């Protein structure tokens, strides 16, 4: 299957951007099943119309220019919609801190092939760069890049901005879909899910508290120290929390500062104890925090394809069970979890 991509800019006239001091703008990419094309597509096409600035920045971060130029993708910009696709649930994706919204292609391609339409939500001034259709190239602001890991107040402000952006997207999703009759025709807006990674995971959970249209949520190694969870808040949507290999106090005590670690552990425990019966907490052995994004692909990390294939298998099964009503698909998959390097976790991050 070929994956199509369209980019939209949403303006929130009710908010002033804290960095630019102008109207807040939010970039989104919509990915959908498209008609077959004969020509190949390169990963760098995701950075149009300012590929050169993007490559220069990635190169400054250690990415090999020749390698990234030659990476292939199944994604094609602005291709026509495959109208034979029907009843596609909508999945929103909220990226990690600094990660560009289109750097989840490994997951996006798989989800579209499984019959979903995916909307990734940018974070202007927070992503390492944001590329607007008019060619503007906006780098991460110095103010945001310099936030200390223990400056919880500033992180909460950034989280609030993310949630407001995501709420804007959900509020305007019908208007965006209406811009293309074929796209509107294949989407089922009654079935919505959300995937959030790291800071995006904390934001996705906050959105769950307010947005009852979301019927399933996946948090990929979320920022637990920014999550406030309790039974009283009434988050009832099924939840899948997928973590990196190191989860418990014993595994993390030499990895994370002693001031931050208790906040992470208590946030995770609160989330675990407040979650619905349909929720699952797992970890992928061999995974690190950025395994859940395209970043390891950029650096040609050894073994990343296999790990991300496993992530995709569990993500799609969970969403198919809860949004496509394919009963027990995810729970049947869990029966073979050991073969996939997946473990179930308890409230302390220990393997059950």
TrEMBL record:
Pfam families listed in its UniProt record: PAF-AH_p_II (PF03403)
Record keywords: Hydrolase, Lipid degradation, Lipid metabolism
Gene3D superfamilies found in the cross-reference section: alpha/beta hydrolase
Residue ranges of coiled coil: none
Name listed for the protein in its UniProt record: Platelet-activating factor acetylhydrolase isoform II
Organism annotation: Paenibacillus pabuli
């Amino acid at each position: 299957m070929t994956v199509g991509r369209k980019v939209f800019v949403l303006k929130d006239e009710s908010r002033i951007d804290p960095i630019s001091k102008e109207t807040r703008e939010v970039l989104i990419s919509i990915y959908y099943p498209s008609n077959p094309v004969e020509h190949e597509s390169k990963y760098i096409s995701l950075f149009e119309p300012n590929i050169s600035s993007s490559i220069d920045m990635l190169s400054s971060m250690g990415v090999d220019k020749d390698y990234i130029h030659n990476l292939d993708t199944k994604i094609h910009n602005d291709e026509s919609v495959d109208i034979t696709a029907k009843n596609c649930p909508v999945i929103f994706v909220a990226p990690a801190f600094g990660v560009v919204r289109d750097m989840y292609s490994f997951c996006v391609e798989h989800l579209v092939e499984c019959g979903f339409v995916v909307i990734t939500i940018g974070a202007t001034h927070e992503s390492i760069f944001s590329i607007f259709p008019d060619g503007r190239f906006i780098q991460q602001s110095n103010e945001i890049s310099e936030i200390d890991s223990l400056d919880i107040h500033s992180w909460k402000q950034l989280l609030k901005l993310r949630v407001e952006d995501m709420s804007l997207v959900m509020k305007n999703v019908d208007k965006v879909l209406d811009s293309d009759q074929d796209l509107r025709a294949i989407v089922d807006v009654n079935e919505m899910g959300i995937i959030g990674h790291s800071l995006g995971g904390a934001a996705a959970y906050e959105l769950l508290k307010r947005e009852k249209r979301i019927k399933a949520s996946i948090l990929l190694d979320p920022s637990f120290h920014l999550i406030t969870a309790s039974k009283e808040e009434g988050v009832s949507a099924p939840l899948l929390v997928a973590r990196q290999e190191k989860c418990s106090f014993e595994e993390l005590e030499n990895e994370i500062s002693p001031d931050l670690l208790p906040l992470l552990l208590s946030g995770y425990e609160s989330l675990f104890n407040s979650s619905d019966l349909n929720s699952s907490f797992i970890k992928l052995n061999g995974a690190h925090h950025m395994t859940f994004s395209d970043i390891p692909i950029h650096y040609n990390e050894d073994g990343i394809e296999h790990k991300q294939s496993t992530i995709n298998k569990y993500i799609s099964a969970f969403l198919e069970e809860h949004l496509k009503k394919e009963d027990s698909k995810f729970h049947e998959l869990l029966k073979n979890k050991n073969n996939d390097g997946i473990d179930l976790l308890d409230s302390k991050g220990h393997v059950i």
